[in-house]
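Action item from last week, closing it out:
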Amino acid sequence: MKPMLVATTLVAFTAMPALAETYQKAGSELRTGEAATVPHLVPKGPEVPIELRVTAIEEGSMEDLQGFEIPANLRDARPVYVRYEYTNLSDEDLSAQQVGAFVAIDDRDQEHAPALAMSGGTFTKCTAPSARDLTKGKSADGCLMFMIHENGRLAAVAYKGHYRSEGSSNTQADYPIYYNPVKWTASASTDASGGAKKVVVQ
């Protein structure tokens, strides 16, 4: 049986905002490589700041997914890899936690949740392992895969964070990034050898 490619879903959590004045302004647009301070929601814990940057937006091909069973609705799509780095700015230990709530926005202004290559398959092109020893000042990195229609393009990657509704009378005011996320668009970059790095959008 072939391993499966599946789409993830975004989840909204429940409780109270904090440190909103330290975060990047909702709706900000940055280029790859630029950093933003954004909220990270600790499971069953507080909302804390992390410094987040999208480091690369790279176009893949369906050949990368050979051996995986592709759902019918994704067979006319291609993978795009979004690589990111983040630094813990808080006193919380963020070890073994995932930085979530990314979406891709295509050239039709449609949002896409990340896709996962899973169910027994081994996929090494783009992974997001849980970080170890992610105490204050420590950094980690990861990669997310999005499936974009073959005739479309990825216009931006957005970080929405999660919100907590319990105790909040107006989540849109208290958690503005969730409703108006921070976005990164691709910019030209080079690899270590000085050659051009392949990106989706210039």
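Closing note: The longest helix spans residues 171-174.
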